[in-house]
Amino acid sequence: QWYSRRRSQQQQAQPTAQQTSSGGGNGYGSRSSNSGSSGGSSGSGSNGSSGNGSSGSGSNSSGATPASNDPTVDVSCPRSRSPSCQGVPPPFRPNDGSCHKADRVLGMSGTPYTRVRRPVYADGVHAPRVGVTRAALPSPREVVNRLHIDVDVPNPVVNHFFMNWGQLVAHDITLLDTAFPEANSGCCAESLRAANRATITCARIDIPNNDPFFRRHGVTCLGVQRSASNTCQTSWREQRNMVTHYLDASHVYGSDPTKARNLRANQGGLLRFRTINGEQHLPADPQGDLFAGDIRVVVTAMLSAVHTTLLREHNRIARTLAGLNPHWDDERLYQEARRVVIAQWQQITYRDWLPWLIGHDAVARNNLRPAQSGYSQAYSAQTDPRTANDFASAAFRSFHSLIQNNIWLGRSGRQAGTVVDTPAAIVLQNNMVQAVVEGMLYQPSQEQDQYMADQIKNRMFANGAAFGGDLISTDIIRGREHGLPSYNDYRQTCGLRRATSWNGFSDLISARNIQLLQTLYAHPDDVDYYVGGLLERRFDTSNTATITSPVFQCVVVDQFRRYKEGDPYFYDLASSPRPFTPAQLQEIRKQTASKLMCDNIRGLNTVPRNAFLKIGVQGNSEVQCSQLPGMDFTPWQENRSGSQQGSQQSSQQRQSSQRQTSGTNSQQRQSSQQRNAQRGWWG
Ligand code: HEM
Ligand SMILES: [Ca+2]
Question: Going by CA atoms, what residue is nearest to atom 11 of ligand 1?
């Protein structure tokens, strides 16, 4: 299992037990000697940027009086790795997200999240949030049983492929260093012994006596391994992101140099693959599981199908470029193909997917649409590209509401499997990539609302067993154990009126739901951000935005603005270290998600023109794959002096491209040596 393997990989990443007792203001913040970081840490201790959150030492423990409105809290601090950069930013994006900005580690994998709002840990440092009257917050499972029941409301606009694309985006930009809560696990006993029912390493989700599902199976608690924090001297616990914060397709290419190397075939610029029934598939890892840039590739068959497609797209492009430029070596072909795949990924996400998530108006208002001709000038060196904890641990998770209990295999829905029990490896079977992708394209997703599918609440990772975990209770507990402030605080952040009584929520939450909240929480200031947000009524009545709630929309918009504006390699920038030529950009603009599927799935002959929408929505119709324009790669053809067709590369760019090529020859030698050393492993 990906989640249990993660747990074993990161035993070192947790603080020691003694620190549980270190109450007061510095227990967590003073553990500089316990670097506790995983994988290749050098513990450099370099303090790359100022303002490392020390202002938080005075953060109050009640959560009742939040920090000033909209403080973008800077939690940057000593990092686990200290990259040496050959130029900032170098011609091609480093795989680990380093060296993108003047602060060389900003956005790098293994570094802490930023925050929209200052955390409200119970002790100001690391203990999970409690109620403002110090009353315990309700069990997340109790909240789920009352408010997040399973009601089937199909989405009128977007399909399940839209949901799945969102999950891939999530996997590109956030991965906690933790494991998924498990029934009656060791953390249950450990947290029970602690005064506030949580230690530094463990928390718990109590299963109520009258639970309609888990009690039948003898489950009384889901033990929560708390997310490991960074190793910084911040004044509070700050979790760290194990993948690159940038929208850089790190789920395809890996977020660290070792993984990136292991994913490569080391010839022709290709990614490693297996051939089964004459088709390319994801390679196997040493345990025999599917291997991709992100460990979560196996969470659903839908994910593994799209990962397979992206692998094929990379290799299709690498082969095409090799045909046009026989003089390019493996490194050059890999980097150029990767650059195109990342461009496609960013373009489809911003141009085609995001408007249906946050609304077309919000995209326009916030300047989030990529350039449709020429170049963009939108980059800002000052913009912080990091993923915000509030976004990753609450706002973006609200799209778990879109998930269906059963997934279609094929476009009619006559064949289906449950979302948790359909094994990811099913895609290795003949024609199953096609069946899974067609299922997603033609099955609507669920509506974005308070209702959640039973499968993910009762049987997450059950893999055929009678019960599994609860994803929605997990979302709630993560918010608390990460110290996220309450719903009322985010109302204020997002320009809504702060409620001073329960009735103050009635602008956006129904009377019935307010009543239920009152039975669960002692005070309006206690309501979890994730829970309150999910209860809000739809604010965009045009039905062209999937997101329903203002408190999520404002955080999501801010995040996508920063991923775009803060990325020096964003694909449409003139200022990028190696900008695409205008002719190349024009070709990239032809690419769509539908075409991506058409080009890489044998047997797929017709698709919805817009891959994210249900057929019929805004005239969305089925089209022949052959009718969709495809990219022409001639503008990538280069003569041996290094200039490209239609290129207006400056001599400086040419020089930097030559430097890169010669620089990478030695990297390539090194990587093939390492590969030899690992041959037994990787075959
Ligand atoms: C079938 C679909 C999905 C499944 C089975 C699934 C499952 C999971 C699981 C098991 C976790 C880990 C929870 C934890 O331990 O804290 C998670 C986290 C998360 N999910 Fe999903 N998810 C799905 C779809 C989505 C979608 C559609 C989105 C957003 C559009 C999304 C966004 C997230 C985010 C942001 C996290 C936090 C990841 C991290 O920081 O480690 N997920 N999901
Ligand atoms: Ca990334």
Answer: 471
Of 111, 159, 167, the one to substitute when testing ligand 1's pocket (max ligand atoms within 8 A of C-beta) is 167
Q: Which of 100, 126, 148, 171 does the annotation list as catalytic?
A: 171
Query: Separation of 403 CA from ligand 2 center, angstroms?
Result: 23
Q: Rounded distance, CA 501 to CA 191, Å?
A: 33
How does DSSP assign 547-561, residue by residue? ---HHHHHHHHHHHH
What is this model's ipTM?
0.99
> Which parts of 216-307 are beta strand (E)?
221-225, 240-241, 274-276, 279-281
For ligand 1, atom 2, name the residue with the nearest CA. 403
**Which atom number of ligand 1 is nearest to the Cα of residue 180?**
15
Residue 540 to residue 1: CA distance in whole angstroms:
39
CA distance linking residue 611 with residue 600, whole number of Å: 14
Q: Is 319 exposed, middle or buried (0-12, 13-18, 19+ CB in 10 A)?
A: middle
CB-based contact 534:337 (threshold 8 Å): no
Residues 6+ apart with CB under 8 A from 511: none
- Nearest residue by C-alpha to atom 9 in ligand 1: 471
Which residue, by CA, sits nearest to atom 31 of ligand 1?
167
Q: What is the dihedral of CA 520, 524, 529, 534, to 10 degrees?
A: 70
Ligand 1 centroid, distance to 512 Cα (angstroms): 28
User: Measured from the CB, is residue 120 less than 6 Å from ligand 1?
Assistant: no
Q: In ligand 1, which atom is closest to the CA atom of 478?
A: 16
Residue 83: predicted pLDDT: 77
Best residue for ligand 1 mutational test, from 162, 389, 471 (most atoms within 8 Å of Cβ): 471
CA–CA distance, 43 with 231 (Å, rounded to integer): 9
Pocket flag, ligand 1, residue 471 (CB < 6 Å): yes
| pLDDT of 677 | 29
Ligand 1: centre distance to CA 678 (Å)? 33
Helix (H, G, I), strand (E, B) or coil at 445: strand
- Given a cut of 50, whether residue 607 has pLDDT beyond it is yes
How many Å separate Cα 462 from the centre of its chain?
A: 22
Residues with Cβ within 8 Å of 110's Cβ and at least 6 positions away in sequence, in order, are: 37, 38, 39, 79, 80, 81, 96, 240, 241, 242, 256
**Could you identify the residue written with the tokens 């593994």?**
304
Q: What is the spatial distance between Cα 650 and Cα 581, in angstroms, rounded to a whole number?
A: 11
The token duo for 194 is 């602690």
Q: How would DSSP label each residue in 602-634?
A: TT--EEESSTTB-TTGGG--EEEGGGS-----G
> How close is the Cα of 468 to the center of ligand 2, in Å?
29
Element housing 416 (H / E)? strand 416-418
Reported for 668-672, long-range contacts at CB under 8 A and 24+ positions apart, including other chains, are 668/266, 668/329, 668/330, 668/331, 671/261, 671/264, 671/266, 672/266
Instruction: Please compute the mean of the pLDDT values over residues 70-74 and round it to a whole number.
Output: 40
Q: Give the distance (Å) from ligand 1 centre to CA of residue 371.
A: 30
Q: Closest Cα to residue 361, out of 157, 589, 542? A: 542
Under a CB-based contact definition with an 8 Å cutoff, are residues 12 and 38 in contact? yes
Q: Is the pLDDT of residue 9 over 60?
A: no
Kindly state if the Cβ of 333 falls inside 6 Å of ligand 1.
Answer: no
Q: Whose CA is nearest to atom 26 of ligand 1?
A: 167
* Centroid of ligand 2 to alpha carbon of 172 (angstroms): 4
Residue 57: its H or E element: none
Q: Quote the pLDDT of residue 298.
A: 97
Task: Tally the residues of the chain.
Answer: 683
3-state secondary structure 257-275: HHHHHHCECCCCCCECCEE
The pLDDT tens digits for 177-188 are: 999 999 999 999
Please confirm, yes or no, whether 126 is among the known catalytic residues. no
